[in-house]
Design a protein that fits this description.
This protein has 557 residues and is of the alpha/beta class. Helix content is 41%, strand content 9%. Helix 17 links the parallel strand 11 and strand 12.
Length: 557
């Protein structure tokens, strides 16, 4: 807690002690003529009828009052006179009241009761001022927290985003849970939906909602059982969705849907049946129409949404069909939000929970491996990634490194958990699940992927990725991989400590199954910030409500 807040709270407590001392002392003096009972005994002998309570109250003030601690709170000395000026005034006024207290005897009961009434009124005024001071100190603490995107580069205070969560058994596909072996293990949709079911920003009042969360776990459904069963489940769920008043009113705008699957990103006109067409949906029969106004939570954002393509293609040499990048995926919806990969897919929460290191910095620093990289040396990758994936094998002669071939999932995660830095190259696309595997293992990601920051980085406005990861340009790495990674051995102890602490904080935002995970909250905040704020002023027009449709024949060209 900040020093000045501690000081204010201490003075508040001290002044309360003065006030209570006065009130209690006077009250006892009125009713008792021969004995004084006031918490800890302040005099050796019972006072006479002429004893003054000014001395008693002053004694209470000097000792810090009831519950006082002699000027210290939690070992922190009260020594902040500027920031605690309000508290000082309150304490001074309480002491003045004590000094001004009059001699009260049992014989003078009437006058004593009148004096007690006045003093109680002053105590009430003091109480109000104390409460105001406490509120101000709490507000100061909250302001400090809200402004601290802190040293670690992780926003500690996310914006409030009230959302509506579709609570419908058919949409939620609850009947699938018992028969689907990969339920909650393979994909993030189940975890995301479950986390939001009890989220404090969930509202049942659609008029209060900024976002509408589509609770259809369609990616999990696609992986469970026969394709025809998936299609039937999805058709039923989507019919329920488009029949709701909130969908009809918004026409799908402000609706966010977890579609974390490459089938929806690339060659998306058919989506391989992931999101089935259905004539019974009427206006929304085609899956392209269904998605047109929605925000999709996915693993990359190429900014190839219909409104963007229609505006920029004529300006920038066919923006959505570049000749040197013909595989560029189409995003047939209004807005994309990049979210983290689901770490250790196919592993249960219990199994993956065992691979969750929480070392201190000194323990992390003592890890035996400096740099970790394992991959299949014989596998070929798409879009020019094969030589990039094979280049790290030239680092095997460096000291304290673990460079080699494939490992099974559990062993790979454990290898990362014993390493300080993890080298991660792009695969078929700029993103890689290994970035998030490394973050779970508290292994600092060293990323070799030129388009990572542009298209694959989750929560770009909420996390300072440079604080807990490093990036190496592909040409630099391909020219001389040893020279490219040499800087890791030059980092000072202070730099290492900063990176490590930043990584610990970032894990809460980027690991779906981390204890205390805030990933779902980051998804809500990022969706609101990126997709409700409007299009780039460089483009113009609206975002989150585009209805332009792309010709089905162009996708994948």
């Amino acid at each position: 807690m900040p020093k000045h807040v501690v000081g204010v709270r201490h003075v508040c407590r001290q002044a309360v002690g003065v006030a209570l001392g006065i009130s209690l002392g006077i009250g006892i003096g009125v009713t008792l003529s021969s004995h004084l009972v006031l918490g800890p005994r302040l005099v050796d002998e019972p006072p006479s009828s002429s004893t003054t309570f000014a001395a008693i109250a002053a004694s209470l003030a000097a000792s810090g009052g009831v519950g006082g601690d002699g000027g210290h709170v939690g070992g922190a000395a009260f020594s902040e006179p500027v920031e605690t000026r309000t508290g000082d005034r309150i304490a001074a006024r309480g002491t003045a009241v004590a000094v001004a207290a009059v001699t009260v005897t049992a014989a003078d009961k009437s006058a004593a009761e009148e004096e007690l009434r006045k003093l109680r009124g002053m105590v009430e005024q003091l109480t109000v001022q104390l409460r105001d001071a406490e509120v101000r100190s709490q507000a100061t603490t909250k302001t400090i927290a809200a402004k601290a995107t802190g040293l670690l580069g992780v926003s500690s205070a996310l914006p409030n985003v009230p959302f509506y969560w579709y609570d419908d058994a058919v949409m939620l596909m609850r009947s699938l849970k018992s028969s689907c072996a990969s339920w909650g293990k393979r994909d993030a949709d189940i975890t995301f939906i479950q986390e939001l079911s009890t989220h404090p920003m969930r509202t049942t009042n659609v008029s209060e909602a900024k976002l509408f969360v589509v609770t259809i776990p369609i990616v999990t459904s696609f992986a469970c059982g026969k394709k025809e069963d998936h299609i039937q489940r999805s058709i039923e769920a989507l019919r329920r969705l488009v029949a709701t008043e909130s969908w009809i009113t918004t026409r799908g705008r402000r609706h966010i849907w977890m579609l974390f699957d490459w089938r929806i990103m690339r060659w998306a006109d058919s989506a391989w049946g992931l999101v089935p067409d259905d004539p019974a949906r009427g206006e929304w029969a085609n899956h392209l129409s269904l998605l047109a106004n929605m925000t999709v939570l996915t693993y990359e954002n190429w900014q190839t949404h219909p409104p963007t393509c229609s505006t920029l293609s004529s300006m920038f040499n066919d923006f959505c069909h570049p000749k040197d990048f013909s595989w560029l995926p189409f995003e047939t919806w209004a807005c994309s939000v990049v979210v983290p990969y689901f770490v250790a897919e196919s592993m249960s929460s219990e199994d993956v929970g065992g691979i969750f290191p929480t070392p201190s910095f000194s323990e992390w620093l003592a890890r035996s491996t400096s740099l970790f990289y394992h991959n299949d040396p014989k596998k070929d990758y798409q879009w020019g990634a094969t030589p990039i994936r094979r280049m790290p094998f030239n680092l095997s002669t460096l000291p304290a490194v673990s460079i080699g071939g494939n490992m099974n999932q559990a062993k790979h995660l454990k290898g990362m958990a014993g390493s300080r830095f993890c080298l991660i190259t792009r695969g078929d696309t700029p993103s890689s699940h290994k970035v998030f595997d490394a973050i779970r293992a508290l292994c600092v990601p060293v990323i070799v992927s030129d388009l990572w920051h542009r298209v694959a980085k989750p929560f770009p406005t909420l996390l300072s990725w440079d604080a807990f990861s490093f990036s190496i340009p592909e040409p630099h790495f391909m020219k001389d991989p040893k020279q490219a990674v040499a800087f890791l051995w030059t980092l000072s102890l202070g730099e290492l400590k900063h990176v490590y602490k930043s990584l610990v904080e970032a894990r809460l935002a980027l690991d779906w199954r981390s204890p205390g995970s805030r990933t779902a909250s980051f998804v809500l905040a990022s969706s609101a910030e990126l997709c409700l704020s409007g299009s780039s002023p460089m483009i113009g027009g609206g975002r989150g409500g585009g209805t332009t449709k792309r010709s089905a024949g162009k996708s994948g060209k």
